[in-house]
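Supplementary notes for students who missed Thursday's class. We covered one full example, reproduced here. Read the sequence, then the structure, then the short commentary at the end.
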Amino acid sequence: MKLRYLFPIFIAMLALMTSCEDEEKMTLLDEIQVSSSFVSIPLDGGATPIIVKAQDSWTAEKVITEKDDVEWLTISSSSGSAGETEISFSAEGALDGRTAEVLLHCAGVTQRINVMQGLAQISEAPVSEVLEAPDGKTFRVSGVCTNITNTLYGNWYLEDETGSIYIYGTLDAKGGTKNFESLGLEVGDEVTIEGPKSSYKGNPQMVNVMVIEIRKSLVKVESVEPAELPVEGGECIVNVTCKGEGLSVEIPEDAKSWLSISSIQTIGTSSVVTFKAAANEGGDRETTLTFSTTDGTKEYTSQTSISQAGAIVDASIAEFLAAEVGNTQYRLSGVIAEIDNDTYGNLYLRDFSGEVFVYGIEDFQDYALKVGDIITIVGTRSAYNDNPQVGGAVLESSIPVTSATIAEVLTKPDDSNTYFMVTGEITSITSDTYGNLYLKDDSGEIYAYGCYPGYGAYSDYRKNLITDKGIKVGDTLTMIATKGSYNGANQLVKGFYFSHVSVE
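Structure (token representation):
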């Protein structure tokens, strides 16, 4: 019998042993109990019953994955009342083994039932084949561990010559969870795993895999100091253990302009590689270094990342939108045009050049910000489904904007640092170029000495709001401005556009 069948057969035997051990034995919960939490259906098709004993009404739910709706499995009843009920699980014949999970909900608790039809055969495959396979199919895959993201559950990346796949959960030698470190798997090791293909939000992954074999790498990065270089540059020291024939170091082409090798010192199997980084006049940057060796027939690699802090780039929203996704920090200023989530601070920020979605602001609820307020944030250029957004945003400063009637504004002292949001009907336009106009509401009328296209407008960007927006006399305009005066006459100054409603 081939090794690849041993693990699924063991699981199947365990299921059968559980169901046959004691037909009357109920499992797990007080609120709802089942005669067996494992159900086996013949590969040729058929039905298998179990007994459900519940203290209250219950419902049955098939767990549906993103690419598998489990239509092949039929449950004789999807709900029941308090007491003892027999339900059966059935399926038509299949060419290959398959599995499913069913949840029984009762009185706020959930009983899980694992259903297996036949034996889920394990196919040996390259990563590229796993990526394209349907969810639920089990594979054996070999490759190199390139990155470990969680050392408790065992989340990491496996890569072979055909591609890379995310491993979400790794079982220990006894099949247990939350014991990943007991395996001793490290970045650079060659590993063979077995487990089911799954997906999360459309991204392929393998879940709760078993490690079949680990082949330790002959090269290993032991430490990096410092892991992040300062803006002014400097040296970074990487300690490497190499048990192969020689050590080579690769710096990616896009990092060679700012990072170089200063020296390599080797004593026995220990090497100290010193890198020198130039001063960084741009945004944050990062690169991945590859250390390689060979045993004479095969190459072994180990990787590590080095990052360097950068200056924060002041940018308009249009410039930000045109930038590439990355770790560079940008400083953006504008008006809160809309708040999408007032818990996390998901909002739309607008300046004279455009508008961008901000995916949350750290500690947003501490600031009592509202629509119309002027804020300055620092964050990275990120994207979701190819839609640009600001990621990891931190509030740097804010200017509150107060909604007010014209009469209320007229009572205020001149102050170039206090902003008001004013709405009124345009009664006259004296300059199409700069947006000089008169604004009137039920409480009074005031002259606006300029209404620019948006916050932060300068030079020629201040011009032509009236023409570009098609604004005319009679329209209702909402603008944000400070209170000022000229030759004793009150007026709105430093004003910019927020919104308008055209007259019919």
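Commentary. DSSP finds five helices and 37 strands in the chain. Helices lie at 6-21, 127-132, 317-322, 406-410, 465-469. If anything here is unclear, bring it to office hours.
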